[in-house]
TrEMBL record:
Organism this protein belongs to: Oryza meridionalis
One Pfam family matching this protein: Guanylate_kin
UniProt cross-references to NCBIfam families, sorted A to Z: guanyl_kin
Full protein name: Guanylate kinase 1
Matching PROSITE patterns: GUANYLATE_KINASE_1 (PS00856), GUANYLATE_KINASE_2 (PS50052)
A GO molecular-function annotation: ATP binding
E.C. number(s) listed in UniProt: 2.7.4.8
Guanylate kinase-like domain sequence ranges: 141-323
């Protein structure tokens, strides 16, 4: 099939008519750019990269009915620049991209073009939206959301957990517009930021959730959660009830724990004894605490309630709860998970839920396999976070 690149690529000049694609993905190479075109209904998604190793992927959409090009709003972090990739359409709603020349575990990406998240974001923004999501082999461990009124002891419990299991748990460092307290370190306890900056980043889709809490904006960036998960640690989020609700409604599967005080009087005592807030701020936090305690029983919101009366007893209960959710690794995937060697696989064939990848290098020499099966039947999550549940296995 002959494709006139000048017709397709807006960078190459004028176009006269929409190209007709009869296959799902067409790779088009010119001297200075690699492009793939994927047809979905009336639209052709053109994924391009130049051969400058520092430049990243660009996306353009051709509306075949109106014969016009649309440059979409692209949400999420794209793959790091590489020289080439291989693409295929999955379920008419996302494009799978296999990056070449990076470790296999970092090579699997999805460009969501018609998922519920993308549709919702398009409505909010009033523009055409596409979104990147990195593919993750296996499920990873579910993040843990810890909520509860200010002063109940969430931070104290989390600090104990981090101290005892530094390589198992990682803290999601939130952004906040509130001023730092005396011993708080930027980037460790919070990312301290300006209201205009966080609002801009929220509108760019960089946040998993955000809320106005006690007169300030607080939010969890997607990066805050995913950087912990990428290190192979279980992510702990310390967020208010509004934030917990937003995460519940998102594509991130997590465990939700609400920490209660033994009494309201004890909560007030702890908040005052901490000595970090003015009287006015204490009053505001106590008012909000009543509302948060009321919501702790909202159906389907929290999986567990923990009472923090005696600190050591509560900490032991928290540890017991978390061990309930100790995930076991899928041994089938382990040969790939930790590999640092770069891989060069291209897409060989596709069925509804399985994709065959073929190595472009001689894997037999390295003692690995030339053919891999990528099983997409149990995908979970997706933009704005990672797409989990990929299974990968050698084909004998
Ligand atoms: N079980 C407990 N008994 C007595 N004091 C406690 C207990 N747990 C925590 N504290 C103390 O209560 C105060 C508030 O705890 P912490 O700062 O951990 O609360 P928090 O829930 O993280 O609050 P915020 O939401 O405002 O960040 C601290 O001074 C802490 O040492
Ligand atoms: N929705 C979110 N709430 C958050 C986040 N980070 C912290 N919090 C909650 O704010 C209050 C106050 O915290 P403080 O440090 O000022 O005492 C507390 O309930 C936290 O759980 C966030 O990213 N999102």
């Amino acid at each position: 099939m002959g494709h006139d690149l000048r017709r397709l690529c807006p960078d190459h000049g004028a176009f006269y008519e929409a190209p007709e694609f009869r296959v799902e993905s067409v790779a088009l190479e010119s001297k200075d750019c690699l492009q793939n075109a994927i047809d979905i209904g009336d639209k052709t998604y053109v994924i391009s990269r130049s051969d400058d190793p520092k430049s990243s992927i660009t996306i353009k959409i051709l509306d075949k009915l109106t014969r016009t090009w649309v440059v979409p709003t692209v949400l999420g972090a794209p793959p790091n620049p590489t020289s080439s990739h291989s693409v295929v359409l999955v379920n008419n709603e996302k494009i799978l991209i296999i990056e070449k020349g990076v470790p296999l575990k970092d090579s699997i990406w999805f460009l969501e073009v018609d998922t519920p998240f993308v549709k919702q974001q398009s409505k909010i923004k009033g523009t055409v939206v596409v979104a990147w999501s990195k593919g993750v082999i296996g499920e990873g461990q579910k993040p843990v959301v810890i909520s509860g009124p200010s002063g109940v002891g969430k931070g104290t419990l989390i600090a104990k957990l981090m101290k005892e299991y530094p390589s198992k748990f990682g803290f999601s460092v939130s952004h906040t517009t509130r001023a730092p307290r005396e011993k708080e370190i930027d980037g460790v306890h919070y990312h301290f930021t300006e209201r205009s900056k966080i609002e801009e980043e929220i509108s760019e889709g960089k946040f998993l959730e955000f809320a106005h809490v006690h007169g300030n904006v607080y939010g969890t960036s997607i990066e805050a959660v995913e950087s912990v998960t990428d290190e192979g640690k279980r992510c702990i989020l310390d967020i208010d009830v509004q934030g917990a609700r937003s995460v519940r409604a998102s594509s991130l599967e997590a465990i939700f724990i609400f920490v209660c005080p033994p009494s309201f009087e004890e909560l007030e005592k702890r908040l005052r004894a901490r000595g970090t807030e003015t009287e006015e701020q204490i009053q505001k936090r106590l008012r909000n605490a009543r509302a948060e305690l009321d919501q702790s029983n909202s159906p389907g919101l929290f999986d567990h309630l923990l009472v923090n009366d005696d600190l050591e007893a509560c900490y032991e209960n928290l540890k017991k709860l978390l061990s309930l959710y100790d995930d076991h690794e899928d041994s089938n995937d382990s040969f790939i998970k930790d590999g640092k060697e770069t891989a060069c696989y291209s897409i060989l064939s596709k069925t509804n839920s399985e994709i065959l990848l073929q190595s472009e290098t001689n894997e037999a020499e390295k003692g690995t396999t030339n053919l891999l099966s990528l099983d997409l039947s149990s995908l979970s999550g997706g933009a704005p976070g990672r797409t989990r549940g990929l299974k990968i296995s050698p084909v004998n």
